[in-house]
Write a structure and sequence with these properties.
42% helix; 101 residues; two-stranded parallel ribbon; 5 helices; Rossmann fold
Length: 101
């Protein structure tokens, strides 16, 4: 939270088709705003790229200097065999990445 409060802008990104159970991006952004974080929600649909590639493309487009991401929402074995956003981001991210499991 200390990073987020100090940020000039926080974008909560949702990639359609790559969501897990839990609060929506808008709900997360609303909760962050209650804590004085300058947060907005953005939902992206990208049928040409994987979710991980879409997240990194959006981070580049936004000029992000830190990417905060939940990690391994599928089992690690499934992620290892089939790939996933977490693995893709770990392998290809340019900005620093803070992951929470």
């Amino acid at each position: 939270m200390p990073f987020l409060v100090r940020a000039r802008e926080v974008v909560v990104l949702t990639v359609k088709g790559a969501v897990v159970d839990g609060p929506s991006g808008e709900q997360i952004a609303a909760m962050l705003r209650l804590h004085d974080v300058k947060a907005t929600a953005r939902t992206i649909e990208d049928r040409l790229r994987s979710p991980g590639a879409t997240i990194l493309a959006q981070a580049r487009e936004l000029g992000a200097d830190l990417l905060v991401k939940g990690a391994y929402t599928q089992s690690r074995l499934r992620e290892l065999i089939f790939g996933g956003a977490t693995l893709h981001i770990l392998q290809h991210a340019d900005p620093p990445v803070l992951m929470a499991h």
